[in-house]
Amino acid sequence: MIRHPERVELACNENPLGPSPRVIAAAQAELSRIHRYPEAGASSLRRSLAEHLRVSEEEVIVGNGASELLELLVRAICTGPQRAVFAEPSFVIYRLACLAHGVPFTEVALDGYVHDLSAMARAVSPGTGLVFIANPNNPTGTYVGRKALGAFLSSVPREVFVVLDEAYAEYADAPDFVSGLELRREHPNAIVVRTFSKIHGLAGLRLGYAVMPRELAESVHRVRAPFTVSSVAHAAGLAALRDREHVERSRALNRSERAFMQAGLSELGLRVVPSQANFLLVDVARPAAAVGEALLAQGVLVRSLPALRTMLRISVGTRPENERCLAALQAVLT
Question: Is the dihedral of CA 23, 25, 30, 31 positive or negative?
């Protein structure tokens, strides 16, 4: 994708601060060695992640973005007639991975933009092998709390794996938000998938990781291609894990600017779905695709959603970017 230097990019939920200087230095240092293949199995990064997450190295897998890992889980788990269950709308990769591998699936409509876990539990049948829950959810930014998520996991048979896609978990600050890393202690069928693309600002390097039972991790390793994580991404990931200050700066910026955007959009008379992520879902009360095109003409790129015809997904940027977005949106709507 060609980036326009004067365009405000608020369509892909990226970290507007970018990666930390320590990450850039580590990536640049690795460039002199890119004629060599990456470290097999990304063992150094897996070991660092295991220490960081307080799990065993055998439970950790890294991949070419979280998307690769989500697809690998479909391939490894749904090897027979097993079905998958996920919400709609949610992260599009769930549907694409199932379609690519001929896995039947059941989509469960959201309830007020939030995962309807009761309906999803009812959709789990004896033939279900895999459930996806994006928490917080993309594209709505909503979340399910500790009590509801714990109850859902307790209701699902242990042989059904539940993937908790936590790409935006580092941005969540609701008091009852809980990570699957904590829940998996009581629910061994819970799998946690995360990414370096968001809070760490490494979207262009494609780096994700997952924590799962070691037996399943072994199965995933058997069906994956070698060297899918580049040596540059590997070095950048190691540096990103060590720079907690950058994570905190990114989290603090998102918290303040998300509130700023929520208030600004509300002042324009727009309904905004409360978000726990680094983006906001906004109802513009008219065909959103046309509004998105008009914003693009003013140099502001946001995301329109075919499944939500009057909704725009707007990433949280820096204060100048957010102010420009609000001004452009006001001009377009009036």
Answer: positive
pLDDT for residue 5: 60
**For residue 150, what are the CA distances in angstroms to 48, 99, 162, 200?**
28, 29, 12, 28
CB 133 within 8 A of CB 144: yes
Span 162-181, pLDDT tens digits: 999 999 999 999 999 999 99
**Geometric angle at alpha carbon 65, from 61 and 66, rounded to 5°:** 65
Domains of the chain: residue spans and CATH: 8-16+245-333 (3.90.1150.10), 21-242 (3.40.640.10)
Phi-psi category of residue 113: left, alpha or beta, with phi > 0 → left and psi -120 to 50 → alpha: left
> What is the per-residue DSSP string for 73-109?
HHHHH-SSS-EEEEEESS-HHHHHHHHHTT--EEEEE
Report strand pairing: 161-165 vs 190-195: parallel
Condensed to tens digits (0 to 9), the pLDDT of residues 63-83 reads 999 999 999 999 999 987 899
Question: What is the pLDDT averaged over residues 209-218?
Answer: 96
Taking the alpha carbons at both ends of the chain, their separation in whole angstroms is 31
The pTM for the full model equals 0.95
